[in-house]
């Protein structure tokens, strides 16, 4: 089973204490429209042209699976944890302010699944790690590029 990057690093270090395993949480269940790329100073493996292809696309989170860009991935479970601003910066080399988040801490949901080729470029699955950015807003990433998504009606 593939673990999201954050969970994989934390489990390797024995630090995943406090993360709660659950099904896909209600807080993200449904459809989300990718609004824009969030400019950050971290290193990513996609260029701007590749990243732009995901803007305007729709993510769908349902019990047991997620779908983005026509690719569906079965989700075994979701790990949820709260990260302080500093902890998030230390783990991802991205400040929450770069993601448009003013809160001192965020909830991160890491969807656990098998490796999959959703994008045709990597086995990383865009949207498998979700940061709750505010009411009706989430931040997802793909290959080090961060995207703002809003709940679709």
From TrEMBL:
Name of the protein in question: Lipocalin-like domain-containing protein
Organism: Granulicella tundricola (strain ATCC BAA-1859 / DSM 23138 / MP5ACTX9)
């Amino acid at each position: 089973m593939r673990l999201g990057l954050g969970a994989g690093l934390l489990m390797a270090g024995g630090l995943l204490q406090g993360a709660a395993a659950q099904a896909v949480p209600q807080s993200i269940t449904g459809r989300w429209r990718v609004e824009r790329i969030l400019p950050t100073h971290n290193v990513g493996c996609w260029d701007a042209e590749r990243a732009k292809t995901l803007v305007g696309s729709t993510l769908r989170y349902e019990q047991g699976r997620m779908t983005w860009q026509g690719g569906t991935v079965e989700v075994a479970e979701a790990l949820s944890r709260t990260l302080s601003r500093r902890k998030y910066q230390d783990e991802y080399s991205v400040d929450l302010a770069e993601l448009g988040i003013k809160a001192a801490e965020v909830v991160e949901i890491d969807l656990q699944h098998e490796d999959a080729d959703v994008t045709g470029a990597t086995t990383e699955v865009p949207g498998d790690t979700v940061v709750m950015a505010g009411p009706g807003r989430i931040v997802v990433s793909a290959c080090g590029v961060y995207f703002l998504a809003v709940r679709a009606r």
